Amino acid sequence: MLQIKELVAEIEGKQILNGISLNIKPGEVHAIMGPNGSGKSTLGNVLTGREGYVAKSGEVLFNGKNLFDLDIEERAREGLFLAFQYPVEIPGVSNMEFLKAAVDAHRKHHGQPELSSFDFMKLARETSKNVSLDAAFLKRGVNEGFSGGEKKRNEIMQMMLLEPQLCILDETDSGLDIDALQVVANGVNAMRDGKRSFIVVTHYQRLLDYIVPDYVHVLAGGKIVKSGGKELALELEAKGYSWLEGEVA
Amino acid sequence: MTQSDFKQHALELAQALEPHDALQAAAVLQALRERGAEEFARSDWPGRKSEHWKYTSLLSMQDYASASWATPKAALPPTAALADIEQTDATKLFFVDGAFHVEASDELPAGVTFFSQADESASAVLKNYLGSIAAGVDASRRNLFTSLNNAWLSDGVLVHVAKDAALDKPLYFVHLSSVSQTSQTITNQRLLVVLEQGASAQIIEHFLSADDASSGFVNGLTEIQVGQNARLHHTRLHLEHEASSHIGAVHINLQRDCVVEGFTLAEGGKLKRIDYQMNHCGPGAQLTLNGVYLARHQQLVDYHTTIEHRVPHGTSQEVFRGIVGDKAKAVFNGRIHIHKDAQKTLAELNNRNLLTSNSAEVDTKPELEIYADDVRCAHGATISQLDETSMYYLQSRGIDTAQARMMLSYGFINEVMEALPHETVLRLLQAHLRARFIEESPVE
After folding, report:
1. Is A2-37+48-247 assigned to CATH 3.40.50.300?
2. Which residues of A touch B393 (CB under 8 A)?
3. pLDDT of B254-264, one tens digit each?
4. Which pLDDT belongs to residue A115?
5. Is A92 within 8 Å of B392 when comparing Cβ atoms?
6. Where are the domains of chain A?
7. Nearest to A92 among B395, B397, B411 (CB)
8. Which residues of A touch B397 (CB under 8 A)?
9. How far apart are CA B211 and CA B180, in angstroms?
10. Does B385 lie at the interface with A, CB-CB under 8 angstroms?
11. Are B199 and B165 in contact (CB under 8 A)?
12. Single pTM value for the model
């Protein structure tokens, strides 16, 4: 589904990713762990196409298409989704309006008619239940005044509505209490259908107790320094990241 | 032709007006007209060096240097927005090029009368308030177009709400301009609202152009007296065609413990200048004013607001937001003047601007003048572009650039509009603005 080959990327002229290769097949869950500043969030932003995150060399194929040929919105419509570490507050634009615009953009891309306001409202209410968000949040400004946990649940709700093929969760566990963590993890697990793939970016092993990965990769100094199965996460939790520092050099 | 040709012409128009023969109010109106003409004649024509017209050029007024009075049409001209306006649950009064349109309008509620029809008691109200609320401005800051409105005064509407009474529905003034591009015409419009002690009212003034209308100059002046413990919601909308000009003002006197909530929105035009002058005359009054301005193409929009705190314990909250694109220009001048006796005043002013093009211009100037030592006062003004992170967030959900821009622009001002108490007016504005932003962001 996603093939990353020797990806080198920079932000404002500063090289952050130093040659990353990763192959993600349909249905797989890959965890990417690593210390702060290792390039974890950069990877997500480069993949989604955020302005200022520039791929200098290497290649990324998403379902056989060169990802860098597509605009941000095209990548999204093709099935790439990034759950933000810090979801953005947009006062004045209602959550409902935002979600409908996003869903309609996806539907249009796939040759489907836009949903009527009534049908969308129904769908949005059902989905909000699945992430334990009160339907009242639909009327509020996008993420406006939401708590950290509510913002993250709103991200998962968007993921459910947009039904992406590849979901990147960027430190979705940060700032969550254990209840919210479970809601988020349940939401993700409910979407694991054997075809949809996930990249779970996290600093801590905790989230991986709930979303059990097939592979764990350690990112340090902009490179993947170690890959393994889910046991690697436990090893990292016990030993920290410092024992891998040698492998960066 | 020079600028002063307009001034000369304006005076000639004033002199050529028929003398007032109103039933009771003739003497009041005639005196005000004469005073206005005299003050206007004495005023210097403002140029670039004039503080209050520093960023807004009056050069284009020369286009009206041989203009005539607009002549009202018999039928209501076709206007797209009318269908929405008619749905509003309000007492609607229609004016076409300044003239009252009886057939289209609802019946005048009690207390609403034309100056020309004023009976003895209405005439007494006019004598007390007409012209004197607007005259409360420092001589050095007086706007000569207020004098001109007096000089041109032929008729107007008085809304007088008696002690402890309430208008049962919002009063909706629809000012339609039907003037086409081929003729340059002038309309003088005047409203006086007097709320006695404990009275309450909601007033909407909506200026717009008929579908095939484009030009014309309107001088619209509104004076409002809000009595002790009275409550007012006032809305003033300027959605005229961009080829037209409007120089107008709203003057509000706030008496003890009254509550005034205001909302105003203006789209830019050839020349659009609106002054808000609000005076805390009695202690403990609460004022909020929310405003939105939008300018594109080569439009100009200019809001000058002044809040005078002369007495203690008054509060003022003012929020203005503007979006300026293309080669348009917006001016915002927000002055708060806290006199030395106005202790315990709480005043806040915030102005945020969104620039959507490199050639657009915003001149924003908050002015604080504080002579009391125990007050809380805050002000801020910002000019920025669409937030890059918000754009990215929307795009990362599959929303294209044009729609994302539209949504963010709309959201920026929708935040200020949401407090409007008139649901149908809010819907009308939201639909109008959505259409406008979609037009500005054509889908790729």
Report:
1. yes
2. 84, 87-88, 90
3. 999 999 999 99
4. 93
5. no
6. 2-37+48-247
7. B411
8. 73, 76, 98, 101-102, 105, 158, 162
9. 10
10. no
11. yes
12. 0.89
